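Q: Convert this sequence to structure tokens.
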Amino acid sequence: MENNKSTADLLIIGGGVFGNSIAFHHCLNYPGRRVVVLERNELNSAATSRAAAMITKVRAKTQFIPLAKRTYIAIREMEALLGESLGLRRNGILHVAASEVKVRELDQLIDIAGQYNESAEYIAAEEAEKMAPWLDCSTVFKIGYMPDEAYCDPYLLGSFYARSARLLGAEIRTGITAQTIRMKDNRVTGVETDHGYFEAENTIVASGAWAPMLAKTIGVELPMAPVRSQYWITKPDPLFPEASPMVVIPDVNAYFRPEGGSLLFGIREKKSLGVSPSRLPSELSGFEFSPDRGMRDLTDAIAGLAAFFPTVYDIGIQHYIAGFSSYTPDNYLSMGKHSQIEGLMFATGCVGAGIAVCGGVGHAFSEMAAGKPNPYDFSAFSLDRFGEIDSTSESWVERCAAARSVKNSG
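A:
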């Protein structure tokens, strides 16, 4: 289709979990409309495939909860449509509090679970250690258990969305780079690509860490920045049964989950790495996230981890995974309609929660693209809540990176 024009009812830029979820929901709920997804590389190859993929519903930021609950609904819908199981691991999650401050936060979280009809209870240290044999609760004050939380294979989830969307009529094209957004008067009319112009009634940018540079082509500054997320996977060991729950320990800014007989664990390091979106490569396969595979950050945190995970010094590390998530200074999503430009929306700023909230995000933008009201409260996610910014400036990137460093839940 080089140098030709293609017309769509809905054009989605980005073939990750957000873009594919939007396509699936729109095709499911509004059959007959032409939906086109454009992806520069392979589908789900950036942040989606590198996610830890903990689909936690119960969160202190309650605006995320309905979005995450919708993800579970979307998974059931896709499994029925495809006649396959996603392999969702409903292992539950332990929230471990080892200080008075974190006990108060845990109590609030248990209360929030009740408000949203999610199962939650306190359990004894001995019970928690039986569930997660690697966990040492000798210094723990209180433990909350939420049995209905789950995790999944993030690449498979993104693929389920894409396959379901295609089955319902979406056109998903890879190897096409969006170069500039095109406008007429105060309305976006489409996107110029290296394969020609794609015209659309509505355009949704869902290109993750790369979205700010595309937004800049029409003078829009997206309030987010690419910030590195990193985690490690241990060598297999009987300490890590596959049925073990996920574990979050806010006192040491750490999270854990089973991974095929091994343990996947990540930390929020003291100084997170942020990068200006202007410096991002077109794809991440050759990007060096850490020359020492995160060992310096892990060394800085290991004494704290060892208080709860004593064998961390002895268990070998098998894999190091890193990627970019789009963070904001307040750790809220950054997405919605642009307030001054018609026909343009941004499904961006995932703040490390993209896999969890992808169902609700897809549903929300599907409805808005059809001219319907947003069924979710996006007021905290406003694109203009930080005022005037320069999304590529060093000071802005540092603000966003610092927000990840202090994040200790969800």
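The radius of gyration is 21 Å.
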